C-alpha cells in the first residue's frame, strides 16, 4: 500500500487507563462479538487495514483512514461510548507515533502494571481475529510481526517483566495483604477466561489455601481445568448463589458485557470480599450498598507491587533500545517497499537508453567494443540508481516530489 497516493494514514485511536476510569473504559469496551461486527463494518466501508484490541485497561483501534474520525465513528457505533466522552478521554496517535505506541503496548511499556505481558496474548488474539475477517493488509502484518519480535526480545533480554504483577496476581497479593487467616478462607473464582485461570494458578502457587472453588458457565471447561489442577473444587453455574453464600472471598473474572454479579446473587447481610477482575466491571455497583461487602476493582488492584515496579522501571531504557532497533528495521522495510517500484522503473529507463546507445554506436563506429561499453554503462546505471536510493532515504527528501521529477525527466511512469 502506498498510503500517500490514496491519502490515508495509519492511526491508533482509543481510550485507556491513562485518561479514562473504569466506568468510562467499560462504556467503550468491546466483546469479541462486537469486535467482529466492527471489523466487518470497517471492511464494508473500504477501510484497508484495521485491527481492534479491547482489554480491561484499553480499547483501541489501529488502522488506516483519511481522517481519524472514521475509526472513532466505528468505535462509538459498536460500543456504548459517545463521541463527546471520546473527546474527553481519548488518545489519538498518527503515523510514526502510532507505530511507536503499538511497539510500547506489545512490550508491556504501556500496561497499567508496567511490564504486564497479559497484553501480548490479547494483542495476538486481536491480530488473529483481524486476519480471520480479512482486515489485515501487508503493512499491518509486517508491523505486527515486528512488534511481536520486539516483545519476545524484551521479555528474554530484560527484566521488564521480572516478578509477578499481573491483575490476577495482584488479586492474590491483595488477599495476602488484607485478609487475616487467608489460607483458611473459602475462595470462589467465578469465570475461567485467561485472567480467571491465572487467578486460580496464583492462589495455588502463592497461598496454602486448600479451599478454592471454581464455577464457569461452560462446566466442561471447569472440569478440564480441575483435572490438571486437582486442588480446586468445581460446581455448576446453577449453584452459583449457594457457592457465594458459602464463600468468604469471591473473585469475578467473567468477561461479560453486563454485570454477572448483582444484589440478587448476594444476601444483604452477607460478609464477603469481592475482587472484580473484569472489564467492563461484572459486579454491579449497587452491591457496594451492602454494609458487609468489600468490593475491589482492577484500578485499585493495579496500585499493588510498588517494589517490583521500581525494578522494572530501571529496565525501560533497555526495552526502548530494542524497540528502536525493530522499529528501524520496520521503517527500512517500508522505505524499501515504497522505493522499489520507483528505483526499478528508473533502472528500466536507463537500460532502455543503454540498449539504444549501444545499438547506435555499434552501427556507427568501426571496431566498437560492445562488451566493454556494456560493462562501463552497466556500472554507471548501478551508481545512478544507488545514488537515487540514497537521495530517497534522506529524511529531508520529499519522496513523492523527487519521484515525479525523475519521472518527467525520463518521460516514464516511475
UniProtKB/TrEMBL annotation:
Residues flagged as site, Important for activity: 101
Record domain Glutamyl-tRNA reductase N-terminal: where: 13-158
UniProt domain comment: Possesses an unusual extended V-shaped dimeric structure with each monomer consisting of three distinct domains arranged along a curved 'spinal' alpha-helix. The N-terminal catalytic domain specifically recognizes the glutamate moiety of the substrate. The second domain is the NADPH-binding domain, and the third C-terminal domain is responsible for dimerization.
Gene3D superfamilies membership: Glutamyl-tRNA reductase, N-terminal domain, NAD(P)-binding Rossmann-like Domain
InterPro entries: 4pyrrol_synth_GluRdtase, 4pyrrol_synth_GluRdtase_dimer, 4pyrrol_synth_GluRdtase_N, GluRdtase_CS, GluRdtase_dimer_dom_sf, GluRdtase_N_sf, NAD(P)-bd_dom_sf, Shikm_DH/Glu-tRNA_Rdtase
Catalysed reactions, as listed in the record: (S)-4-amino-5-oxopentanoate + tRNA(Glu) + NADP(+) = L-glutamyl-tRNA(Glu) + NADPH + H(+)
UniProt keyword annotations, A-Z: NADP, Oxidoreductase, Porphyrin biosynthesis
Database matches in NCBIfam families: hemA
Protein role: Catalyzes the NADPH-dependent reduction of glutamyl-tRNA(Glu) to glutamate 1-semialdehyde (GSA).
Enzyme Commission number(s) of this protein: 1.2.1.70
Gene Ontology terms for molecular function: glutamyl-tRNA reductase activity
Family: Belongs to the glutamyl-tRNA reductase family.
Residue numbers annotated as active site: 56 (nucleophile)
Binding residue positions for substrate: 55-58, 111, 116-118, 122
Positions of NADP(+) binding: 191-196
Protein name per Swiss-Prot or TrEMBL: Glutamyl-tRNA reductase
Note: During catalysis, the active site Cys acts as a nucleophile attacking the alpha-carbonyl group of tRNA-bound glutamate with the formation of a thioester intermediate between enzyme and glutamate, and the concomitant release of tRNA(Glu). The thioester intermediate is finally reduced by direct hydride transfer from NADPH, to form the product GSA.
Tetrapyrrole biosynthesis glutamyl-tRNA reductase dimerisation domain location: 318-411
Amino acid at each position: 500500500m502506498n498510503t500517500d497516493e490514496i491519502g490515508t494514514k495509519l492511526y491508533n485511536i482509543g481510550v485507556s487507563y491513562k485518561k479514562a476510569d473504569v466506568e468510562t473504559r467499560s462504556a467503550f469496551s468491546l466483546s469479541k462479538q462486537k469486535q467482529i461486527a466492527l471489523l466487518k463494518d470497517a471492511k464494508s466501508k473500504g477501510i484497508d487495514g484495521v485491527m481492534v484490541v479491547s482489554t480491561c485497561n484499553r480499547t483501541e483501534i489501529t488502522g488506516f483512514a483519511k481522517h481519524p474520525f472514521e475509526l472513532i465513528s466505528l468505535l462509538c457505533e459498536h460500543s456504548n461510548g459517545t463521541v463527546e466522552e471520546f473527546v474527553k478521554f481519548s488518545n489519538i496517535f498518527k503515523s510514526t507515533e502510532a507505530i511507536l505506541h503499538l511497539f510500547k503496548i506489545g512490550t508491556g511499556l504501556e500496561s497499567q502494571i508496567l511490564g504486564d505481558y497479559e497484553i501480548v496474548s490479547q494483542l495476538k488474539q486481536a491480530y488473529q481475529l483481524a486476519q480471520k475477517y480479512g482486515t489485515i493488509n501487508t503493512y499491518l502484518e509486517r508491523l505486527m510481526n515486528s512488534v511481536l519480535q520486539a516483545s519476545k526480545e524484551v521479555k528474554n533480554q530484560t527484566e521488564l517483566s521480572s516478578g509477578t504483577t499481573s491483575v490476577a496476581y495482584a488479586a492474590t497479593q491483595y488477599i495476602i495483604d488484607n485478609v487475616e487467616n487467608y489460607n483458611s478462607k473459602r475462595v470462589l473464582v467465578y469465570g475461567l477466561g485467561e485472567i480467571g485461570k491465572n487467578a486460580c494458578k496464583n492462589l495455588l502457587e502463592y497461598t496454602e489455601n486448600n479451599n478454592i472453588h471454581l464455577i464457569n458457565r461452560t462446566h466442561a471447561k471447569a472440569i478440564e481445568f480441575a483435572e490438571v489442577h486437582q486442588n480446586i473444587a468445581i460446581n455448576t453455574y446453577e449453584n452459583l448463589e449457594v457457592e457465594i453464600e458459602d464463600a468468604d472471598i469471591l473473585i469475578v473474572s467473567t468477561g461479560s458485557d453486563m454485570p454477572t454479579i448483582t444484589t440478587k446473587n448476594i444476601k444483604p447481610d452477607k460478609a464477603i470480599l469481592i475482587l472484580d477482575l473484569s472489564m467492563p466491571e461484572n459486579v454491579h455497583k449497587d452491591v457496594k450498598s451492602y454494609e458487609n461487602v468489600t468490593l475491589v476493582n482492577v484500578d485499585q488492584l493495579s496500585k499493588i507491587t510498588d517494589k517490583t515496579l521500581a525494578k522494572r522501571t530501571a529496565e525501560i531504557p533497555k526495552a526502548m533500545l530494542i524497540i528502536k532497533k525493530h522499529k528501524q528495521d520496520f521503517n527500512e522495510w517500508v522505505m524499501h517497499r515504497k522505493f522499489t517500484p520507483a528505483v526499478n522503473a528508473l533502472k528500466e529507463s536507463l537500460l532502455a537508453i543503454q540498449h539504444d546507445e549501444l545499438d547506435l554506436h555499434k552501427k556507427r563506429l568501426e571496431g566498437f567494443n560492445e562488451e566493454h561499453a556494456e560493462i562501463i554503462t552497466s556500472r554507471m546505471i548501478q551508481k545512478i540508481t544507488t545514488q537515487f536510493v540514497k537521495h530517497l532515504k534522506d529524511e529531508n527528501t520529499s519522496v513523492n516530489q523527487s519521484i515525479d521529477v525523475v519521472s518527467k525527466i525520463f518521460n516514464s511512469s516511475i
